[in-house]
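Lab channel / #folding
Pinned by the channel admin:
"Please post every new chain as: sequence first, then the structure tokens as a reply. Keep commentary short and put observations after the output so the thread stays searchable."

First post following the new format, from NK:
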Amino acid sequence: MTILQVFNTKTAEIVCQHQVEINQSFPKEGWVEEDPQEIIQSVYECIERTCEKLAQLNVDVSSIKAVGVTNQRETTVVWDKETGVPLYSAIAAPCAVTFWLDLRTQSTVENLINKAPGKDKNHLKHKTGLPISTYFSAVKLRWLLDNVDEVRQAVLSGRAMFGTVDSWIIWCLTGGSSGGVHCTDVTNASRTMLFNIHTMDWDSELCSYFDVPMEILPTIRSSSEIYGYLVSSCLGDQSAALVGQMCFEEGQAKNTYGTGCFMLKNTGTTPVISDHGLLTTVAYKLGRDVPACYALEGSVAIAGAVVRWLRDNLGIIKSSAEIETLAATAGTSYGCYFVPAFSGLYAPYWEPSARGIICGLTQFTNKSHLAFAALEAVCFQTREILDAMNQDSRVPLAQLQVDGGMTSNRLLMQLQADILGVTVVRPTMSETTALGAAMAAGAAEGVNVWNLRSSHLPKVTCEMYEPQINTDESEFRFARWKKAVQRSMKWETTEAH
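Reply from TO:
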């Protein structure tokens, strides 16, 4: 989906918005593709419709001072710089439920790991902060070079441009084949596996490892500066949410609750390489001449997806919103634990052999207990990420900022506070990703309509959820959850069925 939102720089409130659905195609099992032309057309449509809505509100379109871009970070595009035509579909980062089934690049990943010393998937982590995985863009680019003649020929003839989807959008918005700016920002670059998070630039050794020609890569810029007409910020979606949540201090963290969960914790100006299954990424760099800030990141594979599973597969709720009411009728899981490892476990386990289990069932267990256990599962998975972050960063979290669609579920938010033992803070304006991009755009040098100093940040109203159960109860439930997780592992094997 493409969404355009216009913000008031003084209040951080949305003035108006428009959104357009983007089709995804699944040409083979586990393949997730989008049409780059459809993506940019959806951007143009959003701009036109939003301008019409502003006119209806008697808002002068010329009062828009800057545009920011935020995007899904690993979606990969290659196009012809002379014609402006994409050379293949955009390869999307697989959604949570297909992560371990991304068959397209699995053999590519295996080949890359096999040539690493000791066949270590973390061989490049000291430079990239990332394990060698199907998820990241360099692997998708390598697949394109190996499997798509049009891409290979365009690279050989010097016509190819590569980028994450932000690069494609910015290039098109700034002129395309008539002088468009081919750039990306540090947050998106840090998800390619070609970027050195210490030098903050493309790395020749990494490019050599993936056999990727450096001349097709975009120029790396900060997350907040003027790239071209009106466009003055670019942030990967999770980084944008961190900025929109105003997590500018070391130790602050946000968790976005969607199909899965993405938690980022600000670790300041020094990257922290995880020993506990987390990723190290660039959080943001808000200006050319300011230092970058880094983050530890952990992903929960199944969050909102577990609610959809209860709705679509079991039929125990008719709509996702019903789960809060159903779970509240029980008020407890009655000893039932649900590990939704439908396609393996993400951080901190990275265990593809795990599968989902529901355990602790008794004759008394009913659908309301199962609904409660599903919500608890989201909270327990988040607790595991947070524990790993606290161990890696050695800075305990005081409160958790939250956003995303699931945060409208007040029972879930209270459960999260109880299981974490810290305050959960939910802004009443939930569009923090778009807000972060807007803030960075407005704060860019030469725009200067948004001040990111703490004393000038807008006061966003929030709901606060304080822990309401004692620590012993929380720890007992968490220990039972971890016991259930162990039972879910090593389920899927290579043995004959």
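NK: Residues 367-393 form the longest helix (27 residues).
TO: also worth noting, The chain is about 35% helix and 20% strand.
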